Amino acid sequence: MLALQQRPAAPAALRHRSPAAAPFRASRRAPRPARRAAPQPPAAFFQTLFKRPSQGDSGSGGLAEKPLYKPSEMVNMGPFKVSPMGFGTWSWGNKLLWGYDEQRDPELQDVFNLVVRSGINLFDTADSYGTGKLNGRSEQLLGQFLSEYPGSSATRDSVRIATKLAAYPWRLTPKQWVGACRETLKRMGQDRIALAQLHWSTANYAPLQERLMWDGLVAIYEEGLVDAVGLSNYGPRQLAKIGQYLDKRGVPLAAVQVQYSLLSRGPEQAAVKAACDDLGVALISYSPLALGMLTGKYSMDDPSSLPGGPRGFLFKQVLPGLQPLLQVMGEIAARRRKTMSQVAINWCMCQGTVPIPGAKDLAQAKENLGALGWRLSDGEVRALNEAADRVPRGMQQNVFQTR
Ligand SMILES: NC(=O)c1ccc[n+]([C@@H]2O[C@H](COP(=O)([O-])OP(=O)(O)OC[C@H]3O[C@@H](n4cnc5c(N)ncnc54)[C@H](OP(=O)(O)O)[C@@H]3O)[C@@H](O)[C@H]2O)c1
Q1: Which of 1, 67, 89, 172 would staple 138 via disulfide (CB 3.0–4.6 Å)?
Q2: How many CA atoms lie within 13 A of 355 on its CB side?
């Protein structure tokens, strides 16, 4: 049995302080090929994922598959349903920011197997994840782990992979976008994946490319390479425009992801959430742990514990004003017998978003899974919001985030 919700040693922050889319001509290409309906799993999915342990594991390779949430908690994401929390894989292959080490790939595979058998079926990646010659590593590992998943085929088939295609300046024509998506599929060893998301909008600096990208996304869908499309780092105004455009082109927009956490909340995020609700698309909250700061393990009391590079630089700006929020998070965590990471992730779910925390090892993944199966009360959410309002400096917005 996993001890997912055990409370580990008090986080550093508590140990050191006292309590308290222009018109578009119809495509001249051949009509879209007959599409395989996006597998709609509820019956088979729930039977497999939600069987009781006493029902044995036949058909699941001996692996106990037990979702840590109720079926009713699944979230509609375009043509499919996803777990209330997903999993982010930015760190897989990224040495620069995340200190990725190939030697630890077997542990990452264990992490993948653990979270899938715990009911997580949404994985976020990107074709730009992985630094230097490791570019694309995250997609490649994800494809490998999925194909080698030792549990049941029903559970494996329920996994939804959402990649993000980078808005490189040389990606302009629909053919180039389709080519980029085919490269992704090749790295993953898949014919088709759930979602292709535009990694960022170029509206702020190259508006002409922006329109070309929309057509690229349409072309990827029309080629039958994805079940639906998504967006990343789009604000409400740009979202409404592209939402209208995709709708006109008959392309299902399933999700939008933005930075969203207790340190990245406020009118801008609320406006994106409202725009998503208007369009009927899911909001994926990325960096729900504020790159690790909301785990409570980093503290200015121990600067040597801070990560190096750009992350350390950011932490030094944010951490000095974070203590009151960490204090409230710690108190709620202690009362609930949860951890601060679990509280931070749960808060994102309470906002009606689907958080995709990253985890670098099994211990972090186990802990983060403990954010499932319970909900913060309205009062606790209020207390967290009030404490977050008092944080003098939160996360910096992604430079590509549009209005
Ligand atoms: N669309 C975009 O532009 C965009 C941008 C950013 C992220 N994303 C997506 O969102 C995902 C998640 O965001 P993120 O990876 O930036 O940040 P995050 O989820 O806020 O933080 C993840 C990091 O926090 C630490 N951590 C995680 N769980 C922990 C635990 N239980 N205890 C202690 N430390 C823990 C780990 O780093 P350490 O151990 O090094 O502290 C881990 O890599 C990414 O993987 C990616 O898929 C998308």
Answers
A1: 89
A2: 27
